Amino acid sequence: MYLKSLELSGFKSFAKKSIFDFTSDISGIVGPNGSGKSNVAEAFSFALGEQSIKSLRGKRGEDLIFNGSKAIPRSNRASVKVVFDNSKKFLDIDFDEVVVERSVHRDGINQYFINSSQVRLRDIAELLASANIGSSGHHIISQGEADRILNANIKERKEMIEDALGLKVFQYKKQESARKLEKTEENIAQVESLRKEIAPHIKFLKKQVDKIEKSIAMRDELKELSLEYLKRESEYISYNENKIKKERHTPQEELNILENKLQKAKEILLKSEKSDEKSEELIEIEKGLTSIRSEKDAVMRDLGRIEGQIAYEERRIEKEKREQKELENRTVNFNELNEIAQKVYNQIDEAKEQDDLSEVKSTLERVGSIIKDFISTTFSREKDTRVDENELKNLKSKKSELDEKLSDISQNESSYNKKYSALKKEIEKDKDDSRDAEREVFAIMSRQSELRGVLGKIESTESAISHAKEDFERELQEVAILVGRAVLDYENHDLGVDTEEIANEERSIQEERRRKIEKIKIRLEEFGGGSGEETMKEYKEAAERDEFLGCEIADLEKSAESLKDLIKDLEEKLSTQFKSGIEKINREFQNFFSLMFGGGDASLSVIKEKKRKKLDTDLTVIEGELDMGEEEGEEGIDISVSLPHKRIKGLVMLSGGERALTSIALLFAMSQVNPPPFLVLDETDAALDEANSKRYGDMIETLSKYSQLILITHNRETMGRAGILYGVTMGADGISKLLSVKFEEALQIAK
Ligand code: ATP
């Protein structure tokens, strides 16, 4: 025996603790109507986990708690304990005695216990399922529910039969696996959606990372190119700076020398300006000379004239002397004398006429002159030669004066001439000097412009180099910002070529390098700044998370697969065991049925639920009844019966008694095939006539070999089969009381 006892406290009408000890295979519970017998059957259902309060004849959990009476106040808690003997370990738990307990409080809270340890409802259900005491209640037949299995729909029937066949445990496992599978699939969906959610971000990050990696590669390239470029450029610049310095030195030096020379030449030219004064002086001298010469000429002329006069005078004196001599020897003719005498007479005649003395005097003078003229004309040599000699003397003195003057003038002239020629020489020399200086100035200036041209070229090269240097500095700074300070060490970058080679390289090649660098710089700027460390880190984390989620999905899918396999296995097991179970039940059902009805046929068959399309799913019909607008539903159990000697087929046609007999036959068949540890039958025999009661009694005895029976009954026949009888009574206090009674007492009490 498995069922030891039932203990009720505060449950419905059992206000006080009441214990039923089930020491016999068949225990009968008897008592008058309304004394609380059915409450006992319900106490079993309640303790074993029934969730439908309605099926326990209540509306709320509170209705299951003793509600109080005039005599006794209401209880706060209802509790029922079912005690099992588990020495044979029919329950899968390592205790010899197992107490399954459930309590409900007024606030509706239920508590479940196994051996006083609080557990979940599921734990109870699983524990009992393994012992074929399922929650479908096929082993607790409440009052008026004997034909429940007949009234139930095909699906409910199937559940009851599965329960009775002990397949519930597989169902639980299947449900559990399905739940797990559902949960796993939910998790998969969740993880997948998580993965989907982060996917665009990862994609975005990946793009960023690609960009960053590209920009790192570009930075590396830029660094390499820059190192070469900078090294070359700096070598080029310093080489050219030195070269310029050297190149500039010689022309600059020469220019300096030329400047000095030019200065000197200019000084010379300045001096030559002063030579104008000399020219003026020369002109003055020339003027002096001219006047000296004209004076000299005059003196010479005077001298010549005087010399001529002297010669003339000398010749005249000579001639006079000679003529004197001749004159003195001259003879005057009469006419001449007469003429003169005439003139004188004329004058004398005039004078005689004159009174005025002064007039006479003048006439006398004129007479003297006439005579004088005559004499001088006739005897001019009458002139004194001494006078001529005096004149000659005069002339000679004048000549000597003139000679002296001439000599002075000549002296002066020669001094002037000397001055002149000296000055002229000087001027000539100055002119020569100035001409040379001019030539030199010209030469210097042309050389200077030549040199300035050279220096100009050098300067333009220098300016180009200086610009290159500025560019170089700027580029160095820019590149250092972009690729880091390492590039500042360009000096130590080994190119494997010497400076000469670098400097002489075609400039366009270096320009090409610079263009390449610029291009990379622009692209890098387009990529944006920053090392991207954060993004790389973020991407790494995101990718790791994605990978983790990927693994998670794989794991979940794996476990989903194994759950599906498990479910499939369970379904197969359920299906095969269910089929063989149905076969066994059918054999027993046929037996019990023909035993009850003295013949006839009864069987169960597995069918598929048919649903009307688009109609309420509750409207289920048996297969074949409708041939239109149906769809297949879940599997269920159909019952077909045919009574002996009657043409009645189908459950709906049965009378109440026939229904009761049929359901008892099925119930017993089920119990026979896979006996539950105990069966509670609440007035299942109520509708039976005497003959059937007898048959029922026989069947009960057979059944009690496999299952412990608790029979709530008013039936005398049934009571007679019970090994122990409990009487339940209710007094005026509204409390059910329990007492152990003998058969006769029981008959009494039951009335
Ligand atoms: P019958 O032979 O007519 O089927 P019975 O012996 O099976 O009757 P029950 O139906 O078990 O009687 O008991 C019903 C009795 O239990 C009623 O008197 C009802 O008042 C009482 N009862 C039900 N719930 C409670 C409750 N919560 N508190 C107190 N009494 C209750």
Question: Can you walk me through this structure?
Answer:
The chain is α/β, with parallel strands linked by helices. The protein has a domain at 1-139 and 676-751: 3-Layer(aba) Sandwich (Rossmann fold). It has 15 helices and 15 strands. The strands form three sheets. The chain has a six-stranded antiparallel beta sheet with strand order 2-1-4-5-6-7. It is rod-shaped, with a radius of gyration of 85 Å. The model is unreliable at 614-627 (pLDDT under 50). Bound molecules: adenosine-5'-triphosphate. Adenosine-5'-triphosphate is lined by residues 12-13, 31, 33-39, 63, 66-67, 143, 734.
CATH H-level name of the domain at 1-139 and 676-751... which superfamily?
A: P-loop containing nucleotide triphosphate hydrolases
Stretches where pLDDT is under 50 for at least 5 consecutive residues are 614-627
The share of residues in extended strands comes to 5-15%
**CATH class descriptor of the domain at 1-139 and 676-751:** Alpha Beta
Structural category: alpha/beta
The main sheet orders its strands as 2-1-4-5-6-7
Largest sheet: 6 strands, antiparallel
Given the C-alpha coordinates, what overall shape results?
Answer: rod-shaped
